[in-house]
Write a structure and sequence with these properties.
The chain has 391 residues and is α+β, with helices and mostly antiparallel strands. 50% of the residues lie in helices and 8% in strands. Helix 13 crosses helix 15 and helix 15 packs across helix 17. This is Cytochrome P450.
């Protein structure tokens, strides 16, 4: 039996499927890869609980120990901080937390605004433009590359590798991209060592070479994770958010009239169409119960922020975009110790981008019917491949 999450219609619009599954209960047993049953968490309260449950491990190395997966992912990708539990996760996360605090992000705001304006300067009123290619991709790529110290001439390659890493159903392409980006970061680390600068990557090198709290493998893995995770979800946040506003012109007009509303609107946009549809892999280290469903030890568990954020028990009338809604409790960034480290940066980039677009292009509209938009072919990420508009 195939999983409903593999249905092409689910990739285009997952929310009817999520609603149908959730109507049978907040946790569903689903067929998983290799014939092993997995469990999908679609209820809000249950998802929040599962995100914080230490009995759900993210240590994929432990889960797949002794199994031949047939994959050739570079360890820098397959064994990143995302795939660790405490105490390793605690140690690794602590080393980079300071770069993404609200204060640190506040210092980046002028730079983010300047990059946004330079990108929007290329938009010509009346001429079709792809929001993804011209804004939603280059803005977060430029910012995270600037933060890490990635040279400008390498940034197109970084984006291409990152895109390939999320090529669902193409394991050979994904594996190859993992080696390309890991090899690149290893080379960049070597170059930074020869001439340390004020980048985040240089700071991590100082930690590794000074206090030895990072192994060389951990350093490369952390750099790769920051590079990839530092822009992929933000691209989808900007793309999904602007699409939602274009489909609700009254809401877009409100943002033009009330630019101070943008920060809270970002929370509602994150809730309404979450950039991460189904969170990364977890498994039960012991038998446990979530939402009255018993999950056996060793079973994979998938938490769906996209479903939880439209649970009517938490968000009434969840399929309606409502800029007056208090959506701060959404789970688009996860919850607990694995909550997205870069959430403050992603929110800042989205707020600046959406405010600028609304202000500078009052006649912006979709260039094609929304039904013709192509969505990414992955249950993990939720985002359009392109977003043609007329400024």
């Amino acid at each position: 039996m195939s999983s409903p999450l593999q249905d092409p219609e689910f990739l285009r619009n997952p929310y009817p499927t999520y609603a149908a599954l959730r109507s049978t209960g907040p946790v569903q047993k689903l067929p998983s890869a290799g014939g092993r049953s997995g469990y999908l968490v679609t209820g809000y309260a249950e998802a929040r609980e599962a995100f914080a449950d230490s009995r759900l491990s993210k240590d994929t190395k432990r889960f797949f120990a002794g199994q031949d997966t047939g994959r050739n992912l570079h360890p820098a990708v397959s064994q990143s901080m995302l795939a660790t539990d405490p105490p390793d996760h605690t140690r690794l996360r602590r080393l980079v937390t300071s770069a993404f605090t609200p204060g640190a992000v506040a210092r980046l705001l002028p730079y983010i605004a300047a990059v946004t304006d330079s990108l929007l300067d290329t938009w010509v009123p009346g001429e079709q433009v792809d929001v993804i290619e011209s804004l939603a991709v280059p803005l977060p790529v430029t910012v995270i590359c600037q933060l890490l110290g990635v040279p400008e001439h390498d940034r197109a390659a970084v984006r291409a590798w990152s895109n390939d890493l999320f090529a669902a159903g193409q394991p050979t392409l994904v594996d190859a991209a993992s080696h390309e980006v890991a090899d690149y970061m290893s080379g960049l680390i070597a170059a930074k060592r020869r001439a340390l600068d004020d980048s985040l990557l240089a700071d991590l090198i100082r930690v590794r070479d000074g206090e030895d709290r990072l192994s060389e493998d951990e350093l490369v893995s952390l750099a790769v994770l920051l590079l990839v995770a530092g822009h992929e979800t933000t691209t989808n946040l900007i793309g999904n958010g602007l699409l939602a506003l274009l489909q609700a012109p009254g809401s877009l007009q409100r943002l033009r009239a009330e630019p101070g509303l943008v920060e809270s609107a970002v929370d509602e946009l994150l809730r309404y169409d979450s950039p991460v549809s189904t969170a990364t892999f977890r498994f039960a280290t012991e038998t446990l119960v979530i939402g009255s469903t018993e999950i056996p030890a060793g079973a994979p568990v998938f938490i769906a922020p996209g479903a939880a954020n439209r649970d009517p028990a938490r968000f009434p009338d969840p399929d309606r975009l409502d800029l007056d809604r208090d959506a701060k409790g959404h789970l688009a960034f996860g919850h607990g110790i694995h909550r997205c480290l870069g959430a403050p940066l992603a929110r800042a980039e989205a707020a600046i981008a959406l405010r600028a677009v609304a202000h500078r292009f009052p006649h912006l509209r979709l260039a094609v019917p929304s039904a013709e938009l192509e969505w990414q072919h992955t249950r993990l990420m939720r985002g359009v491949q392109s977003l043609p508009t007329i400024p």
